[in-house]
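Hi L., both proteins are below.
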Amino acid sequence: MVLEQNLSLVKKVNRLLNWGHWFSFFNMLLALVITASFWWAEPLPVTFLGWSYLVLTWLGHTAFICFMFFILTIFPLSLIFPYQRHIRGLAAALASIGLVLLIFDAYVYNQLGYHLGSASYDQTIDLLRQQIVTNLRNFLLIVAVVGSMLFAIELTISNFCWKKITRLGQSGIGKPALMLFFGSFMLSHVLHIYADAKLQWDITRQDNVLPFSYPATAKSLLARYQLVDLTQRAQRQAERLSLETSLPLTGELRCTLPAQQSTLLLFSQPLTESQINFFRQQQFRLHEQHFAPNNAPEALLNVLYGQFMVEASDTEALKQRPSWLSPSHSQAFSVVNRDPKLSALLPWASESTTFTPFSMVFDADPTQNWADYQQYAQIVIVPLHSNNTKFQLAPVTALTRWPALSQQLKQHNSQQLDWLPTLVAAAGCDGQQRWLSDNLLAPKALPKLNISQQDIISIRKDKMLILRQDGSYGVWSAGTLVPLNDKLDVPMLIDALKRLED
């Protein structure tokens, strides 16, 4: 009697496990449809090897996710609680929840560029909150309909596999499917090893596309955004970062100058304590979370052209007048150089004491010429560069007498790249600009981004992350430059790099 009961139990468990394998197989097919959507958020490969890896990793990794789901959920339940009706219903419910989570992860990845996880918890909650606030009824309706449909499909698959388990076993589908998925999984890893050794960025940039795949690393982020060509470890994406294609004001600029709202951006040498006290007596407010390069050529490139300095040769652009200083706008904009140290860098800059309503002035000691600047309604005084020799981008103290701007700067960091779009916006100008930075009067929610001598620098609140070209990185307090023992903040970097997207 005991033997018969044991044999009966073994048969039940064996039949449940066979059913579970086929149930997982059909769920793999469903999951393949969902995981295909992850590539909608990414540029497609450009090489045959890249396409081969995409197909192999799509088949192999999706099958791996489904198989692990079976091993971690249905398999132990079948051993502990071998009652087919309960297991089939419970498996359908678990599979439905898993697919809903996979769909949500695909949505988050398409919207934000990274997967669900502890590192992206805040951003995911914000995204979910936006959907609930703006479209609560539609959101609940979609979730209910999708969840119900998936549960109905899962129940259908569960019942079909149970009733047709013998016919499915005799169909001859099992072994070819196993070979296809297992072979794809193994070949994708072999191809990835080859790509990592040969520095094929068309493959390695796909590392983080699918959930639970290769962890996001500094090197894979560089490859993903094509900021380094891993075949040479030196070539950036020239089309996006070159001065020729990404100058912010190459299009027609239309300006409606506001009445009596003249604006002055006054760039000085690093300010002394006595100079800061002098301007505070003139009703200026301090802004200490402003970041400037540690050298004048790079700072000028940021300020005058709204452009990164990716290579040292980029400073050659300083010899040419910026496009926004066109003759048609000569009555509105001007750049005046009153700093002898910058004469060689800005041979085209005027030394006139006649200023236009919207001006950039470079003055080594603005306190001596303060009487010339009091005509302006809105003034910003900021050191052109920092004296920090360790960090390419370091905090400096800016001063503002501009109420609308001061209000925004209470909650936001700023950098030298931000001044040009802010000045243009203050002049009421509109055009076909593609800014790499912010108009500080209406800043974006994205972290700050700068690229300095092939290092990527991102700043959000009090965190500064530097990603080097070799894939190493460091995290510091943005205000004090004290090193932080933090891991690579992938969501922060991806959000910052979105500034490079068209």
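That was the first. Here is the second:
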Amino acid sequence: MSTEVEVVRAELVRDGEPGAAPAEPGPRYLITQHTMLGPGELPPLADQKPA
């Protein structure tokens, strides 16, 4: 059985730090070091409790 896995490298930055994206209106997602997502799956929204 072969399972293809895509690893995405990312960096968490605090607001106002160099490299932080400008604040844009839209959904806020809750992402931690333990967040694992499947193909096409979105992370939980910040105002929802994670499963």
